[in-house]
Amino acid sequence: MKELNLDKDDLVIVIAIIVVFLIVVGVGWLFLTH
Predict the structure, then answer these.
(1) Number of structural domains the chain divides into
(2) What per-residue confidence (pLDDT) applies to 8?
(3) Distances from the Cα of 30 to the Cαs of 18, 24, 25, 27, in angstroms?
(4) Is the dihedral of CA 25, 27, 32, 34 positive or negative?
């Protein structure tokens, strides 16, 4: 298996995915609770 070797570009992509995921979950939660 290839070791986890995150470059800065990969790290930016991972952070972007997490941020988008949190936004989607947050909006979905607000939509369901209102």
Answers:
(1) 1
(2) 84
(3) 18, 10, 9, 5
(4) positive
Q: How far, in Å, CA of 3 to CA of 24, rounded?
A: 30
Residue 2 lies in a domain: no
Are 6 and 14 a contacting pair, CB within 8 Å? yes
Q: What is the DSSP letter of 3?
A: -
Tallying the residues shown for the chain, one arrives at 34
pLDDT in tens, 1-31: 567 676 888 899 999 999 999 999 999 999 9
The whole-angstrom separation of Cα 28 and Cα 24 is 6
